[in-house]
Amino acid sequence: MKTSFNKYLYIGFVVFGLYELLFKHAALDAATQFGIALAFDPFDQNQTWKDRPMWQKAVLIIHLAVVAGLFGYEVGGSDFAKGFFEGWNDAKK
Length: 93
Known about the structure:
By secondary structure, this protein is mainly α. The chain has 3 helices and no strands. The longest helix is centred in the C-terminal third of the chain and has 35 residues.
């Protein structure tokens, strides 16, 4: 069985991202690790995007959506909370 080294790098970065997210509670660091994992395509790199099976496309697109969601949560979460509380405390000065 021929296995690409990229598959191991992909799995390693995904596992490290899960560690960052679940144990360290660092969403931005987890998004970084998940994003780096996408650079190491775990599937056949010689296969074009059009020729890939639908499930491989779905895995990669969902993975990208998770990265974008974590990044958006980290960037926008604190700003939203700050604006919400300042708005309720009448901070219009």
